[in-house]
Structures are given as C-alpha cells and as structure tokens.
Design goal:
Helix content: 40-55%
Shape: globular
CATH architecture of the largest domain: 2-Layer Sandwich
Number of helices: 26
CATH class of the largest domain: Alpha Beta
Largest sheet: 7 strands, mixed
Radius of gyration: 33 Å
Number of strands: 23
Bound molecules: adenosine-5'-diphosphate
Number of domains: 5
CATH topology of the largest domain: Ribosomal Protein S5, domain 2
Strand content: 15-25%
Length: 665
Amino acid sequence: MNFFKKSDNGRHDVIMEELRQKITSACMPEQVEKIAEQELSILAKISPTTAEYTIGITYIDYLVCLPWNKKTEDNLNLARAERILSENHYGLRTIKERVLEHLAVKVLMMNKKARILIVDDEEIARKNLAHVLTKEEYEVAAVADGEGALRELQASEFDVVLTDLRMGKIDGMDLLDRIKVRYPDTRVIMVTGYATVPSAIEAMQKGAYHYLAKPFKLDEVRAVIKKALETKTTRANTKGSVLCFTGPPGTGKTSLGRSIAGALGRKFTRIALGGLKDEADIRGHRRTYVGAKPGRVIEEIRRVESSNPVIMLDELDKVGRDFKGDPASALLEVLDPEQNRTFVDHYLDAPFDLSSVMFILTANVLDTVPAPLRDRMEVIEFSGYTQDEKAHIASRFLCPKQIREKGLSPGQVVFADSAVAKIIQEYTREAGIRNLERKIATVCRKIAKASVDRQGAFEPVRITAETVEQYLGKRKYRFDVIEEHDRIGVATGLVRTETGGDIIFVEAAKMKGSKELIITGSLGDVMQESAQAALSYIRSNADAFGIPDNFFEHHDIHIHVPSGAIQKDGPSAGITILLALASLLTGRAARRDIAMTGEITLTGRILPVGGIKEKVLAAKRAKVKTMIVPARNRDDVEELDEEMKKDIEIRLVDSVVDAVQAVLV
Ligand code: ADP
C-alpha cells in the first residue's frame, strides 16, 4: 500500500536520505547505528502524517546528535590545575589539596605503562613478541607455561595476557578459566597454531577478549592489544571518581566544581537534583508518545556536545522527599563505574557510555543520603567562612565581579573595608557568602541606575560604613546576645542546621499545674527526649539545686525554642535545655553571652556532638564571647585553625555541674 501523494513522496524520500546520511556520519557505536537504521526502515514504510512518524524522526535526530565519541582532551597538568583553583578561590587550602590529589591519581592512572604477560612454550615466538611489545612502550613479562603465568599473576597485576592455547600441564583454556575467576579485569588474548573454529568459540565464550591464529601479523597483535587496553584504561580511570562536596550553601562548592572542569579543559554542566520529581527525570521517558524526552543526564551531555564533561549533581540531600520511584537506584546506575558504561536511558533505548563523565555531587548534609550512594563517594567537607575570610573574598572576588557584571567600571565604585565588614555583620547572617554577594549586587545595581539617570556626569562612588544604609536600608540583624541582658529561664545554645551553624535561645517557664511538661517550637523527637532527660536530671537532683521536693507536684513546665517555623532536632541542645530549666527553677539568671552545645545523660555527663566548626563560626557571627563544648570534643577543637579560635574562649566541660557553675550567675 502506498500512503503518499506523488509530491509528498519526493519530500519523504529526501528526508529519509538526509537521515540516512546523518546516521552514517554520526560515528555512533555499531549497535546504535543498527538501531537507528532499523528505525529508519520502519519510518520509510509509514505515513508522515502519523504520530509514530514524528516520534521516529525526532528519535533518530536525537540519536545522531549525541556526542557518542566526541570527547574533549584532558589537560592533566597539575601545576596549571593548582593555579586555576587558586586564582578563582580564596582559602579552602585542604579542600584544594584533596581535589589536586584526586586529579593526581587520575594523571598517574593515565600515564601508567600497561603491563602485558606473554605465555608461550616456544622460546623464539616468546622472545620475538616480547621484543616487539617492549618497543611499543609496554611493560612486558614472558613465561613458558601456565604454572609460570600463575606465579607472575600472583606477584603483580597485568592488563593483558597473551597466551598460547596448547601448553604443558595447564593449557591456555585452563589459564583463561583461572584468570577470569581471580583477575576479572585482566584481558586475555588467545594465540595458537592449531586454530580451529570450535576452540576459538569456546575461548570467546569463556570470556577471552580475542583470538589470534598463528601465523599472525604483528600489526594485528598491536591493534588487538591497543583495543583491549582502551576499554580497560577508561574503566580504571573512573573508579572512585565520584567526589561529593558537602557543606552549607554559598561556600564555593559549585564554583570549585566549575574550576575543576576549567583545569581539566572539560565542559561543565549542572543538574539540580532537588527539582527532579520522577525517575524518568533521570532515566528518561519511553518514547511511546510525542514529547517524550530523555533524562537530564543525557540531555546535558547532548547540550554540552561532549561525552566526558564534568557534571555536577546538586542537592543530593534534597532528592527523594516527593520523588516517584527509587532515586538511589537510578542515581547508582548513573554513578557506579560498574554500571554506567552501559547506561540505558529509556528514551534512547540503547546503551550510552557514561564512564568518562566526571560526576561531582553536592549536598548540604549527608544524613539523608542513602548508604549505597554514600559508599561510592569521596566526601570533601566545606565549612563556613570566618568574618575575615568573608571580607577577603568580598574585596578580592565578589566586589570586582559584581561591579563588572552590573556594567560599571572598577574606578567607578570603591567598597571601603568598613563597608564590607558592616554588610557582613549587619545585613547577612550565614555560613557561606551567598547573601553577601546579593547585597553587594544590590549596591552595584543602585549605583548603575544612578549612573544612567545622570547620563554619564557621574562622580566615582566610595561606599563606606556610613553610606551603606543608603543602599541597603536599615540593618537586618541585631546582636541578640550582646545587645540584651541575662535573663532567668533563657539559655543560649548552638545547633547545626542545613545552612551551617546557628544560635538558638531556649526558654523555660513554670506555672501552676500538675507535673506536665509542654514542649513547643517545632522540636523533633530527639530534642523532645533531651528535654525530658534534662527535666528528669533536675528532678532527681532537686536537693542539690535547692528546689523544694514537692515543687513538681504543683507546677507545669513549658519549654519553648523560638523560630517555630524552622524544624529543629538532634541531641546537641540537651545541655542548653537543661540550663534554661536550671535557671528557671533556681531563680538564677543564665549568662546570655555563653553559648553551649552538648548531649546530656541522666547521670549528668556531657557527651560529644558534631558540627563543632560550624558552631564556632555561628557563635562568632553572633558575637558570643565564650562557648561551652563537651570535653570529649577536644580533638575537634584542637583541629580548628588559630584564626577560627581568635576572639572566642572555648571551654571544655565534662559534667552538667561544671556547666551550671559557669553559666548561672
Ligand atoms: P555553593 O555551591 O557552595 O552553594 P557557590 O559555589 O555558588 O556556593 O558560591 C557562591 C558564590 O561565592 C560564588 O559566586 C562563588 O564564586 C563565591 N565563592 C565561594 N567561595 C569562594 C572562595 N573561597 N573564593 C572566592 N569566591 C568564592
């Protein structure tokens, strides 16, 4: 049956021919080329007015446009990489070191000479092959029999084993069997003078990489070895290549990822995992309807036109809340070097090799990341910046960048140090520098507008602490700690949140009633239990605190942590709750300028907690002068930079009694 009118027929043929040519010139893997051709032959038979036709054409178009074999050449010069990372980022010393170590491993893997083992009982053949392959820059060992080969393999790793089939006790086939079991990554190439089809088939079935019949041409051997190594090197390169950057927002995770791509000379792209709702967003939609699309990974690869970009998967910890399907398994398929060589996107319906993509994950916290994913990542922790670091970054990077981006010239706007310090302290309260950058952008935008209003007759502007308010309005943050006085029933605590460390005030109140404990302020289960433990501790030590025995019979107690809209949890607020209660019940005010963190036990010990660094930074941001930290966190405190410990006294405390003595006036 012919569906077409005559004129349609002509156009249809032209389209088919164009697609055919695109398929041949797309350098697709053989298997995919076949799929495309099959699809094309189906299309040739159906009417261009059907939906299937459109779906088919879009599909083939997609296939031919993917960068199947298009890669950027890696630049693995470490000195250059170090320079690029330093030029774009202030500080982050240990993080840069970790990243460079990671890249160094890559360089070594790339430059490592491949090792080849020749197994042949004929001395002349063995020597000849060894001679030729050594000249090809391989590291070669040669042995006369299977036993010798096993000894060599046990002593060190080989990439390729070139073995004769007929030998003494352990023949080539036996050797192949044992290698496949013990060294599955090693490629085995069979060589024999008695080439018969059945033995060739048997060897390939058992997992040999290739089969050469004697007499063979040297070029043939060279080509086969090269191919075997190519598939193997990429594999070794990608193992453990999933870096995961964790830390509060605005601490430079994304921009460091971008710099790594720059240093390697690779393309860079980002996928925000937090925005994905469905497995199909990762694995693609089946192409049964018009508008079906591949997943984001394949989409990005097509967009950057390279099959080895650096892909940053952002917000790993935000995935899964309302995700349809299992995000962890879909991500594993993408990330796991064992699986991603043959990643099948549902739309493509053909394997795409993701093994040369460098994935970098980012997350604010790791608590919600599934264990199988965590196992495959090399975690690098980013922490918040100190006031000094922020000031440096602002004057070296953020101000010049914003001045440039808002169309102003460097001489037109000058930020005085005092202005930057004021913006940091009074207009932002964050671990990173995202809001700081926004505030600087706001100032620059206002100046840009003024400059346009005055049509060029514009004096250079110097922003100082005094003039900041003109641009940004009244200050945003007050210093709740130093600007207020000590109170009864209110204690200052430090907690860790997704956005870094934060200061909290725990309030306690008592009223006539009957032994009820009321807890409010969006506290999670663990925090509620801490409150109960704190109360029990005080009740069981009522005498020591000088609280009448029958007090609890006739009173209710209410514990509240303001900022009720924010969910809070974790055991580390235990000591703060206890001190708010102790202050309330003893009638002694709690020092507002001492902030504390620590888990408590019913016997009054203080247990160590996490996030010390972020908490110290939060304390300093809030102008706290003294911090109480569990004595068992001594190591974390000792690890802090001197810069970090400046202007704050950190007291290590072992027991609740010591904390009470320090805090209650
Ligand atoms: P994240 O990904 O951690 O949320 P970003 O990488 O988006 O943070 O950083 C926010 C901004 O701060 C970017 O403009 C970035 O260039 C800048 N920035 C962060 N850390 C540094 C640093 N150490 N030196 C220079 N600029 C930085």
